Amino acid sequence: xxxxxxxxxxxxxxxxxxxxSVRLQAFDRSFYEAYYEKTRLASQIGVSxxxxxxxxxxxxxFVQGKRADLNERIAREGRTVPVYNAKEKxxxxxxxxxxxxxxxVLGAAVAGMVLTxxxxxxxxxxPKRLLANACAGLLTASLCFGIVLVWLGxxxxxxxxxxxxxxxxLFFTNDLWLLDPATDFMIVICPESMFSALVVAILLRTAxxxxxxxxxxxxxxxxxxxxxxxxx
Length: 232
What we know:
Number of strands: 2
Low-confidence stretches: none
Strand order of the largest sheet: 1-2
Helix content: over 70%
Mean pLDDT: 91
Strand content: under 5%
């Protein structure tokens, strides 16, 4: 029982960190501003930097539920036009639904982490045994996750387009995500290179949080808690 609880605890920690990193990074306005400044995208597409930033912020706010619609106008190439068309708006409804489901999973993972911790505490009846089992659970789950992460990293590094296409076909049931730069402003301000940088940033943020946790867990098991780990 303890072995199952600690493994589940480890996975709940991992899911919480990964989805928490997605939430923090995906809605980090400074990331997009830095990307736009580096690529000088505003001047290339005929909008002001302020309107470019506003267009992205409208999208982010809609996904987070901070606004009810995507109805906004900007000046583009000397004309005042709607930022997003009907197809783009419909796609963002799907994106918001996906984000809301991801946040439900995040909440469930956090709850699972707390519940499994209480379960391990009830079985262990000793702080040292509890900490040892929690550390072991994190390390065991991290080993499995590390294999997946390496595979994903190689896939992203060698063919991000294929990764991004399969991600969309997996999580979306329609083809609204297939946008055309000639007609859809959303794909113009969200090019593949930006998403590639975003995915890398999410992975780095995840690693920045997980690595210290895992090193700490390994050190505790190796140096401080050689006794106290339950076998079953």
